[in-house]
Amino acid sequence: MTDVHAPHVDTHAHDGHEEHHGPTGLLKWLTTTDHKIIGLSYTVTAVIMLVIGGAFAELIRGQLMSPNGHLVSFAQYNELFTMHGSVMIYLFAGPFAFGALANIFVPIQIGAPDMAYPRLNALSYWLYLSGSITMLLGFFTAGGAANFGWVGYAPLSNSINTPGAGADLWIGGLLLTGFSAIFTGVNLVATIFYLRAPGMTMFRMPIFTWNMLVTGILILLAFPVLTAGLIMLYADRHFGTHIYSVAGGGVPVLWQHIFWFWGHPEVYILALPFFGMVTEIIAVFSRKPVFGYKGMIFATITIAALSLGVWAHHMFTTGVVLLPFFSIMSLLIAVPTGIKMFNWIGTMWRGEVWFSTAMLMALGFVTTFLVGGLTGIYLASPPLDFFTHDTYFVVAHFHSVVMALVFAGLGGLYYWGPKITGYLLNERLGKVQFWLLFIGTNLFTLPLYLLGLKGMARRMAVYPNAPQWQHLNQIASIGAFIIGLSTVMFVVNIVVSWKKYPAGDNPWDGHTLEWFTTSPPPHHNFYRLPQIRSERPTWDYNHPEHKALAHGHDVEEGAHA
Amino acid sequence: MKVETKLLMGLGVFFAAMCAVYWTWSLENAGGVMMFAAALLCFLPGSYYWWWSRRMKTRPEDSNTATREEGAGFVGAFPGSSIWPFTLGVGCFFTVLALVFGVWMLVPGLGLAGWAFIGGTSEGRRGGTK
Q1: Chain A hits for B50, Cβ within 8 Å
Q2: Which residues of chain B does A268 touch, with a Cβ-Cβ cutoff of 8 Å?
Q3: DSSP characters for A92-112?
Q4: Does A130 sit within 8 Å of B96, measured CB to CB?
């Protein structure tokens, strides 16, 4: 163990912190407990998962280019849409948010030397990696990978309807990644509660860190439910229990209750971190503090609280759920989400907006998420949901949401990448990537709404040979291919920019503590810390001519409020 | 510590109220139990923080006027590097694969996990690696 003391108070000297002399090379990666290296490992693994899940998507869209496509067989198509959803939700979006960027930046944003439990943090990563490998191993088994959809509904997922190792590997992979998420949730909450720097009160924490705290709590509430559900599913498949089968007196719809009690909070476990990233980006690139700082926090808490009471809006058509309760609760989520939209616009309002790639990505998030959010309000209404359930309208809705998160995640990489690597990415290529992604996303999602309203069911490898359906599918597929091209452009940008544009410590005139330390930060993060007087300590330090703001008011005014 | 307490207790109260409304209205047990458990999961740490927040001095990180000097000194002991999380991770990997490929995989799985538990605990008691 290394005894860590608080960073030196007043000097630029490096005393007060030990230099780290640990293993190097592969052994360093295997034995590290440094949250930044673990976070970087998460980042690389999650981006690989994004590429794998994206490749599955391109195959799906290739199959749907024509009504009777022959690119893949029906069985392969089932595996593809199952594993596309599974990889993107379980192995990319969540781990990228709370494993990668939160792991790296939450401790730094609050002035902590590391996560509260560094070895548990390392274990989280190894469980995530092994869970990812476990799930993907299904492709190498005789029966292929899991093929019952990413939701694994009973009784389709039982051992009679889905025999074989692929389904068991899917369950095993989810168990491992589930525990990984739970451990990360524990770490995030403990770190934020116990390792903040002096003066970093709860209501001075950056919005990203606040969102990660709420995400951590949601993880702890939701993931154990999924884990318990998966163990019961495995028991049904192999130990002769009948928890989800009518034959033995079980209740198949119980799986849906359990799955969605995890599944809908999971939507916000995925979304809240990206909301936080976007809030940081919009404030920094508008040259303004966050508009409605406390309102943003209360909106985040409200979204999280409501998210635990909306799960059965995924089950309206089962006929066994309380429609008014879940409809009202789901509609209510629009209120705090609307507050966030309002505050993002308020932050930009009369700001000196700098349209960097990160800012463009954040704006891409806002517009795309608006479409996904508004169509979510339609789906919260049972009569409309009955009409569109299991059609491409639902697929379009949640792809608008998750593509918005992709915008935000890429914005996060362009914004924070220089802090992690010490180098900027090429802005011109970044903007090309943004426009390709923006055009591709809209070409991809908008036709799917129309297809859904025309009645096209999801998860179908073929569809009726009607010209209009085919044209809309072709437009959507072209959109998906353009999204793929934008991903290639990102890789090109990384290669072209490799160690070419040194970033310095604070390339964006940032607000929060990560922009106070070096790029990349040293072992245990800081050589020194500034006095923390507001939610923008680095900006306060770099702009002493301005008074520190406490939630939009002067400190003096705030003291009288 | 007071804000942390309010956050957890507030969420617990909200979940408890939501549970009461849902359970009495729907008479559906699975959701009622899960919401009840969610409320308990908030009250458990929330009441711990509430108990402590009434008894401890204001921490520097809870004070708007805290100076950097107030936070000077020992923060905590952090492990420099450790092989045991990786060992435990591989052990868990094999253990889960045993669910699919056969119980023989429990031998390396539980073996590595047990070794990691002992090794990690010893490392902590020894003071760990720099």
Answers
A1: none
A2: none
A3: IIHIIIIIIIHHHHHHHHTT-
A4: yes
B92 part of a folded domain: yes
For residue B103, being part of any structural domain is answered with yes
Buried b (16+ CB within 10 A) or exposed e, A316-345: beeeebebebbbebbbbbbebbebbbebbe
- Surface of B (79-98) touching A: CB under 8 A: 79-86, 88-90, 92-93, 96-97
Task: Tell me which of B40, B58, B76 is where a domain ends.
Answer: B58
Cβ–Cβ gap A325/B25 under 8 Å:
yes
CA A402: distance to chain centroid?
8
Q: Taking CB atoms and an 8 Å cutoff, what residues of chain B touch A127?
A: 89, 92
Classify residue B90: in a domain, yes or no: yes
Q: A202: which chain B residues are within 8 Å (Cβ-Cβ)?
A: 3-4, 7, 62
Domain region containing A488: 34-560
Does B43 share its domain with B6? Answer: yes
Residue A133 lies in a domain: yes
CA distances from A161 to A116, A152, A156, A460, A494 (A): 45, 11, 5, 18, 45
Chain B, 12 to 71: residues with Cβ < 8 Å from chain A are: 14-15, 18, 21-22, 25-26, 28, 30-31, 34-35, 38, 41-42, 49, 60-71
The tens-digit pLDDT sequence of chain A (561 residues) is 666 666 654 434 344 445 566 777 888 889 999 999 999 999 999 999 999 999 999 999 999 999 999 999 999 999 999 999 999 999 999 899 889 999 999 999 999 999 999 999 999 999 999 999 999 999 999 999 999 999 999 999 999 999 989 999 999 999 999 999 999 999 999 999 999 999 999 999 999 999 999 999 999 999 999 999 999 999 999 999 999 999 888 999 999 999 999 999 999 999 999 999 999 999 999 999 999 999 999 999 999 999 999 999 999 999 999 999 999 999 999 999 999 999 999 999 999 999 999 999 999 999 999 999 999 999 999 999 999 999 999 999 999 999 999 999 999 999 999 999 999 999 999 999 999 999 999 999 999 999 999 999 999 999 998 888 999 999 999 999 999 999 999 999 999 999 889 988 999 999 999 999 999 999 888 888 888 888 899 998 998 887 766 554 444 444 433
Number of compact structural domains in chain A: 1
CB-closest option in A1, A173, A308 to B38: A308
Range(s) of the domain holding residue B118: 84-126
Residue B82 distance to chain A (closest CA, Å): 5
Predicted-assembly ipTM surpassing the 0.90 threshold: yes
Domain count, chain B: 2
Q: Which amino acid type is present at position A39?
A: G
Q: What is the CATH number of the domain that holds A216?
A: 1.20.210.10
Nearest to A31 by CA among B117, B88, B118, B20: B88
Is A18 inside a domain boundary? no
CA distance A454 to chain B (A): 34
Which are the contacts of A219, defined by CB distance < 8 A and separation ≥ 6? A98, A181, A182, A184, A185, A188, A269
Rounded to two decimals, the pTM is: 0.93
Residue A10 in domain: no
The two three-digit tokens of residue B109, written as one number: 């799985």
Instruction: Note whether B51 and B89 are same-domain residues.
Output: no
Instruction: Please indicate, yes or no, if residue B71 is contained in any of the structural domains.
Output: no
Cβ of B99 and A171 within 8 Å?
A: yes
- Which chain B residue lies closest to A312 (C-alpha atoms)? B31
